[in-house]
Specification:
The protein starts with 29 loop residues before the first strand and ends with a helix. The protein is 40% helix and 14% strand. Bound molecules: guanine (GUN).
């Protein structure tokens, strides 16, 4: 399989050394250590960010925009800004009041599109209900769309010429690569068809050569779609969506769900304990796919900075 950064042309996410694997004594699944892989990606981003600053006299820059003060979004946004600082990326914070109009937000996005210090623009989702997220995403310069959600970037991925890749699906592919899971030819089932995860995940898996099924609310027999999958990606946001006994023995299971139970515990969409008895590889929650999302965002910021610098040269 190709390097982690396959196709983006920048090498921003490239990693080299093998990540240690943890196979439980009972012979269950290899537990995929997302924290370790994310740390490797961030290390390589940091090297590239400092090289960029040396060459161009400024660090790569990310503008993170939050509208309102949704507590969960505030935590994510704080983590993104802190991670930038740790990686040698300049962070530009834009905290807009809950009463901001869509026109005001669009005006900010237009200003950030023109700001030469800004290589990446991230507008934290969800936006307040009166705003149309599609209009906001469409307004971001595709060259600065480090979320990889602009139709131009999703379209390029669909046409097998990825540029800025949606962070969470790109993170799943990076985990598979790091653990030597050769996706080409495998039967993959994606559960969930959202614009942020499920749909671009299907495109990433196709790019990697898998045979892909996408399940959604219209799927008639989810169990049978999961049972024949050699790769399962769960991105529903509902605990217990995938019982462990549905997992095909030896399958690679990537759980994107992050759900908080009544007792305050974080769990994924897959029943972890029973699935880990059958799977070949499995991502835990927390500590699996979650840490990769920010790592790939940082990787995309460096990729965007290099692409923009190349285009200006
Ligand atoms: N909210 C939850 N996940 C994401 C993400 O990946 N990008 C943005 N912009 N908002 C999010």
């Amino acid at each position: 399989m190709k390097a982690t950064s396959a196709g983006d042309g920048t090498g921003a996410a490239a990693t080299t050394a093998a990540v240690p694997t943890a196979r439980p004594a009972d012979g269950g699944a290899i537990v995929i250590d997302g924290k370790a892989v994310a740390a490797k990606v961030r290390q390589s981003v940091s090297v590239l960010a400092h090289e960029f600053e040396g060459r161009f006299g400024r660090p790569p820059g990310l503008a993170v925009v939050q509208v309102g003060d949704d507590p969960a979004s505030s935590i994510y946004v704080r983590n993104k800004r802190k991670s930038c600082q740790e990686s040698g990326i300049a962070s530009f914070a834009h905290d807009l009041p809950a009463g901001t109009t869509e026109a005001q937000l669009l005006a900010l996005v237009h200003a950030l599109n023109l700001d030469q210090r800004v290589d990446g623009i991230l507008v934290q989702l969800p936006l307040p209900g009166r705003m149309d997220p599609n209009r906001v995403i469409d307004a971001i310069d595709p060259a600065k769309d480090v979320d990889g959600l602009h139709p131009v970037n999703v379209g390029l991925l669909a046409q097998k010429r990825p540029r800025l890749r949606p962070c969470t699906p790109y993170g799943v592919i990076t985990l598979a690569t790091e653990y030597g899971i050769a996706l080409r030819g495998l039967r993959a089932t994606v559960v969930g068809a959202s614009n942020i995860v499920g749909r671009p995940m299907a495109l990433e898996l196709m790019l990697a050569g898998a045979t892909v099924t996408v399940c959604h609310t219209g799927t008639r027999d989810l169990k049978s779609e999961v049972e024949r999958a050699e790769v399962v990606v769960a991105a529903v946001g509902k605990p217990g969506t995938i019982p462990g006994e549905w997992i095909r023995p030896g399958a690679a299971v990537f759980d994107v769900g992050i759900n908080r139970t009544a007792t305050g515990k974080l769990v994924g969409d897959v029943e972890y304990e029973s699935a880990a008895q059958r799977a070949g590889w499995i991502t835990p929650v927390p500590g699996g796919v979650g840490p990769m999302t920010i790592a790939m965002l940082l990787s995309n910021v460096v990729a965007a900075a290099l692409l923009r610098a190349g285009n200006q040269a």
